[in-house]
Amino acid sequence: MEFHENMDANTTSKFKISSLLPSDRIFLVEGKPAKAEVIGRLTQTVCRGADNLDASDVLAQVLKREEGISTTLDTGLSIPHARLEELDGFKAALAVLPQGIEDPSGPHLEIKAMFLFLSPAKQAFFQQHLQVLASLAEVFKPDFIAELTACKDAKEVAAKIAGE
After folding, report:
1. Global pTM?
2. How is 53-77 classified by DSSP, letter by letter?
3. Are 22 and 159 in contact (CB under 8 A)?
4. pLDDT digits 0-9 by tens, 37-92
5. N or C: which end of the chain has fewer CB atoms below 10 A?
6. For residue 23, is it within any domain?
């Protein structure tokens, strides 16, 4: 399920992160790749099957946004995101990094989960965009992220997120 333009932009109920994350958009990352490499894989995952999105353009926009201000929280969650004119609904993908990777833009920040989030640039979606970001910060606390990094596969991660 994705939010679309006809949904009530003034809704104040808690956003369910699982509504944006089918299990085929969740993966576990072994080793310690560079942050940009993980963002690239997330971007490819989100853009797969979306004819109106060019993965290289989306990646460039997300990386440019990351240059300005790091989106890594001290909880271990990184939320690279962008607002795109060509979108009519939200799109997302999640990488779980059991071994963690260092965020090069922040001193001593370790990324254990990375949630790529793309939203429509239309003003009607801005409040929902903020709700998604707030929900991510609320749900992805260090204990929850530790539970995700202990999962064996994407389906197990999806089940934990569905039970948020």
Report:
1. 0.86
2. --HHHHHHHHHHHHHHS--B-TTSE
3. no
4. 999 999 999 999 888 889 999 999 999 888 877 788 889 999 999 999 888 888 99
5. N
6. yes
Beta-bridge partner residues of 119: 83
Hey, what are 130's tokens? 């903020």
Kindly calculate the radius of gyration of the chain based on its CA atoms and give it in whole angstroms.
Answer: 15
| Range(s) of the domain holding residue 116 | 19-162
In the chain, the number of structural domains is: 1
Residue 5 resides in a domain: no
Is residue 25 within 8 A of residue 73, CB to CB? The reply is no
63 located within any domain: yes
Per the listing, tokens 């997300």 go with 62
Identify the DSSP state of 4: B
Q: Which candidate, 38, 26, 66, 46, places its Cα nearest to that of 119? A: 46
Spatial distance between the Cα atoms of 92 and 140, rounded to a whole number of angstroms = 15
Q: Is 80 part of any domain? A: yes
Q: Give the whole-angstrom CA distance, residue 37 versus residue 146.
A: 22
Q: For 85-131, what is each residue's pLDDT tens digit?
A: 888 888 999 999 999 999 887 667 899 999 999 999 988 888 888 88
Instruction: Please report, for the domain that includes residue 127, its CATH number.
Output: 3.40.930.10
